[in-house]
Structure to design on (317 residues):
């Protein structure tokens, strides 16, 4: 059996022309027409992407505790396609046409009002793009998203074309860990929110293993080293897709500040990762088809490097 690809080695779905075509048809035809396209698009990618099918089957079997069926796998693929399509409308038109409910907003607003900056830690569940809804409700609150532009260049171009201001606010993780830390620290000094995803590591990024859905899974330590460097409040953020035009944006307080002592770095990281993984699993079990890590998530991590610098790369796609 051939070795499974790391997620960074998997090719970007579609390509520039396909994404341009879908964007054009979606914007010209409207969301109702765009959602009609999801069925042939879902079936096409389901049939063409064997790596993603295997990952879906593995993941759903862990969630349900039994072998998953084709219908369940197609449902997960369709949810991913739906949230990907909605990115176009959220970037082009904001909340218009969507029902986005927000939980934990008072806690987030309290942190924003302190003016120290806030670190929002999310995952590849639902739509992180729903976070943009805050921009309309709180235009005074700046949002900077850590995004690896090199992983999905076609989607990055789409983002920058549809919402140039959003594209300009991206912190490009492909520039390296030091650049991410400096940019994030400067954003926090200005009282901004800095958002990133913490459930997927780069090939050379330090990782540690934590229990997730009943089996050891590697998670990156970079987000927590970044939190330690920034010394700002940390909130978990989940943009959950509820079907149709409905999303739920959840903010949960995680830490007043993250402190990782040098003399007990490993245990401190393990504790942070375990807490994060527990909340991740909570929402995965509540809405299993929202999970969009279409790779071998339980693939063994390289040897842990607890003295590593802040994340080499982050990905928010």
């Amino acid at each position: 059996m051939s070795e499974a690809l790391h997620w960074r080695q998997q090719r970007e779905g579609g390509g520039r022309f396909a994404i341009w075509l879908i964007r054009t048809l979606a914007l010209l035809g409207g969301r109702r027409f765009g959602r009609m396209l999801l069925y042939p698009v879902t079936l096409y990618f389901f049939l063409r992407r064997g790596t993603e099918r295997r990952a879906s089957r593995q993941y759903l079997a862990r969630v349900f505790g039994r072998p998953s069926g084709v219908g369940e796998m197609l449902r997960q693929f369709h949810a991913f396609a739906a949230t990907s399509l909605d990115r176009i409308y959220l970037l082009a038109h904001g909340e218009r046409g969507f029902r986005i409910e927000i939980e934990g907003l008072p806690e987030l607003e309290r942190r924003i009002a302190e003016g120290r900056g806030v670190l929002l830690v999310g995952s590849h569940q639902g739509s992180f793009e729903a976070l943009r809804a805050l921009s309309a409700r709180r235009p005074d609150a700046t949002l900077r998203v850590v995004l690896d532009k090199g992983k999905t260049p076609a989607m990055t171009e789409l983002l920058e074309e549809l919402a140039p201001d959003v594209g300009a606010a991206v912190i490009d993780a492909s520039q390296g860990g030091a650049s991410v830390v400096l940019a994030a620290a400067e954003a926090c000094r200005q009282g901004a929110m800095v958002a990133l995803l913490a459930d997927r590591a780069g090939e050379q990024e330090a990782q540690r293993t934590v229990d997730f859905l009943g089996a050891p899974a590697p998670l990156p330590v970079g987000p927590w080293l970044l939190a330690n460097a920034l010394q700002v409040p940390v909130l978990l953020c989940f943009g959950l897709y509820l079907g149709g035009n409905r999303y739920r944006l959840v903010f949960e307080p995680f830490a007043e500040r993250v402190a990782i002592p040098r003399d007990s770095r490993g245990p401190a990281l393990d504790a942070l990762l375990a807490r994060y993984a527990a909340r991740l699993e909570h929402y995965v079990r509540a809405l299993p088809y929202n999970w969009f890590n279409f790779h071998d998530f339980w693939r063994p991590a390289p040897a842990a490097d607890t003295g590593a610098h802040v994340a080499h790369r982050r990905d928010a796609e």
In short: The chain is about 45% helix and 15% strand. The chain has a mean pLDDT of 86. The beta strands are 99-103, 118-122, 143-147, 171-172, 193-197, 207-212, 215-220, 234-243, 246-255.
